[in-house]
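FAQ: What does the model actually see?

It sees only this:
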Amino acid sequence: MFEILFLGTSASAPSAKRGLAGQIVSHNEYRFLIDCGEGTQRQILQSGIGFKRLTRILLTHGHLDHILGLGGLLSTLLRWESIDELTIFGGRSTLERVRTLLYDVVLRGNQPPMPLILKEIKPGIIFEADDFTVTAFSVAHRGPDCLGYVFEEKSRRPFLSQKADELGVPFGPERGQLVAGNEITLADGRRVTADDVLGDWERGSKFVVVGDAGRTDNLLEVCKDADGLVIESTYLDEEEEMAKQFSHLTARMGAELAIKAGVKKLILTHISRRYREKDVIAEAQSIFPNVIVARDFDTYQIKREIQDGG
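And it is asked to produce this:
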């Protein structure tokens, strides 16, 4: 299961109720901050989640409304907070801009308070834990190196507790050995294999986060069968030509992608303050019913059968 906390949901400029782009995706003990618009550090504090374990930042692209908050965040870490390491992931051109912001403006010859790693990435797996991966993929927007991210749990075989009980497998390390795929020998000499107590392979949850984008035809495969999709909705269909001009999407375009890709849940963000939320929802729901427009501080759980909260 993945969980996403929206810190900022406005497009380009903040509004009275929406901050600039920023989201935290969590999986067990791991946290990833996706983008860091102006004011993100305050949103982190106001959300109550704090800075603990927030050691990985994934950037979708280098536009200021997605990176400018890095300066304030690092400034706060210099004076008030303590984390062991900070790794910022992004494309080459994005990191060039980030490097200028952090080293020339914020640090100005000083050393960062922790190991600060600017990790250039390209499409492919960028992070792997025991039970999930994070994969970057290319997105078409203004400028080079624009990225989105797929969070995907690895396939697993569920442990059949009732079957283990029937076989007399005791609670404790023996069951852990079986989950790991090993064979065990019981006290009475009987052997129990993993196949005896594990069910069929099951796909884990798949969660796709798209930053700013100007088209969706190149996102169809990466979004296929996603349990959750977060994607921008800067414009409504009535201003489709303006959306094309600035390489952004309409609510209708996001909904059409969700239908074609077989997405289970669609979450729209990056909302222009020129529109009412209900109009954005209405346009998308006319095509794809299971859609919501995220608000600042909304939290959603993403699993094979999605349950909402927030």
